Amino acid sequence: IVMTQTPLSLSVTPGQPASISCKSSQSLLHSVGKTYLYWYLQKPGQSPQLLMYEVSSRFSGVSDRFSGSGSGTDFTLKISRVEAEDVGIYYCMQASHIPWTFGQGTKVEIK
Amino acid sequence: EEQLVESGGGLVQPGGSLRLSCAASEFTFSSFWMSWVRLAPGKGLEWVANIKQDGSEKYYVDSVKGRFTISRDNAKNSLYLEMNSLRAEDSAVYYCARGQSMFGLWGQGTLVTVSS
């Protein structure tokens, strides 16, 4: 499964919203009825961290400024109000089909 | 504090071998699937392999099948990645991560460089 993210880079003014698209080459709806689409963020100099799981569930401790949506092959991560601490590279990842695959990453910077 | 600590990375010649380790602490290691994910220079994240709690199921990305072996020792709270026939394209930071696909805990990574 090929995961395609757009845009590949994003420069955002603090306090403004941001949106990242992730499209898969096949439907991510698994036979068990779940969609295994995740969002990870790798901040500069840090290991990746989990933001969202199964499309729209926020991981423990993740700000409610982050939200995920989508179904089938089209997914979106939204940040309602970007803050300086949100800079880094955002990756979507699918785990509905082996092998798991990541998108190319979207680099988010602050203006 | 729950923690994963990788070790074993380094410089190796093409065709060589390396064994990565990941030590888990402050959580019940034997209750979780575990995974390896890598980040090559200038590239994005790539899932490498994962292993079920009891080691009975293992999955790999195609590019490492037959060359890499994932294993675990629940008595030692440790995860391993045996890497053979290494290629330049295997150069990356290798992270161990807790979970089958929902990677809620990551280690700090260990750097593997394959070069002559």
Tell me the layout of helices and strands.
The complex is a heterodimer of chains A (111) and B (116).
Chain A: E1 3-6, E2 9-12, E3 18-24, E4 37-42, E5 48-53, E6 57-58, E7 66-71, E8 74-79, E9 88-94, E10 101-102, E11 106-110
Parallel strand pairs in A: 2-11
Antiparallel strand pairs in A: 1-3, 3-8, 4-5, 4-9, 5-6, 7-8, 9-10, 9-11
Chain B: E1 3-7, E2 10-12, E3 18-25, E4 34-39, E5 45-51, E6 58-60, E7 68-73, E8 78-83, E9 92-98, E10 105-106, E11 110-114
Parallel strand pairs in B: 2-11
Antiparallel strand pairs in B: 1-3, 3-8, 4-5, 4-9, 5-6, 7-8, 9-10, 9-11
Description:
- The complex is a heterodimer of chains A (111) and B (116).
- Chain A is mainly β.
- Chain A has strands at 3-6, 9-12, 18-24, 37-42, 48-53, 57-58, 66-71, 74-79, 88-94, 101-102, 106-110.
- In chain A, the strands form two sheets. In chain A, strands 2, 4, 5, 6, 9, 10 and 11 form a seven-stranded mixed β-sheet that branches.
- The model of chain A has no long low-confidence stretch (mean pLDDT 97).
- By secondary structure, chain B is an all-beta fold.
- Chain B is 0% helix and 50% strand.
- Chain B has strands at 3-7, 10-12, 18-25, 34-39, 45-51, 58-60, 68-73, 78-83, 92-98, 105-106, 110-114.
- In chain B, strands 2, 4, 5, 6, 9, 10 and 11 form a seven-stranded mixed β-sheet that branches. In chain B, strands 1-3-8-7 form a four-stranded antiparallel β-sheet, with no helix packed on it.
- In chain B, a hairpin with a 6-residue loop joins strand 5 and strand 6 (58-60).
- The radius of gyration of chain B is 13 Å and the shape is globular.
- In chain B, 38% of the residues are buried.
- The mean pLDDT of chain B is 98.
- Chains A and B meet through strand 4, strand 5, strand 9 and strand 10 of A and strand 5 of B.
